[in-house]
Amino acid sequence: MEGVRHMFDGVIFDMDGLMVDTEPVWMECWEPALAHFGYDVPPELADAVRGSAGDTASRILHKMVSPQLDTKAFWDYFSSLAEEIFSKGVKKKPGIDELLAYLGDKSVPCAVASSSSKKGIERNLRFIGALDRFDAIVPSSEVAHAKPAPDIFLEAARRLGTSPSRTMVLEDSFNGVRAGAAGGFFTVLVPDLVCPDDGIRSLASRVCTSLFDVRDLLYHGEVG
C-alpha cells in the first residue's frame, strides 16, 4: 500500500504532550495553584484531569479536591501560572516535523483538537513552526462537551470534511483515547507521561512509541 491517502482522509492531532512538551508545565502548576486556594494535590488528580477541560475538568476537581472549590477562580489562577512559563517557549516532541512533512507530501488535511485555548494552541504551534500546517483548529471551548466525550474530534472531522471511520486521531492522554474511540475514529495512542493500562490499550486502535513510529507505520501501510 502506498501512503496514507489510501487509508485515511484526514488526521486530527491533540497538542499538549503529543506535539509539544507541555505536560511537565501543567504538572508543575498543580501544587502552587491548589495551595493558593488552601488545598493539597490529591493523588492521581493530574492523571484524571489530563486531556479534559471545562465543566468536565471542574467536576473532577469538585470530586477529588472539594465541592467548595471555586473552579473558575482556580482555572484562571492555574492558567496564569502556566502562561508565564509558556510565554518563554515550548519544546516540540520528537517526530512532529517528520510526520507533518509526510502528511503534507500526501496532501492529507490535518486538524488540531485540544483542551487548551485557541490562543494557547496558536501560540504553541507558532513556537514550533507548525501553525500553517493545519487546516482547522478546534479548542474545547468551541464544543459542548470536553474529552472524554467525542465532541471535539467530531467537530474537527466536520471541519476537515472527513468521516470518523476514515480519520486518524493522535492522542497521548487516556481521556483523548476514550474520546476518539467513542467517536468511531482510528485512534492512535502515543504515551507521554503515563504508561497505558490494558483498558486503554483495548480502546486504542494502535499504540505507538513516538510520532516517528506513527510516520513509519503510515509509510509502510501498517495501520488499519
Number of helices: 10
CATH architecture of the largest domain: 3-Layer(aba) Sandwich
CATH superfamily of the largest domain: HAD superfamily/HAD-like
- Number of domains as seen in the coordinates: 2
Q: Number of DSSP strands?
A: 6
**Order of SSEs, N→C?**
EHHHHHEHEHEHEHEH
Quote the distance from N terminus to C terminus: 12 Å
> What's the CATH class of the largest domain, please?
Alpha Beta
- Uncertain runs are 1-5
Report mean pLDDT, rounded to a whole number: 90
Sketch the major β-sheet.
6 strands, parallel
Structural class: alpha/beta
Which geometry do the CA atoms define? globular
Oligomeric description of these chains: single chain
Tell me roughly what share of residues is in helical segments.
Answer: 40-55%
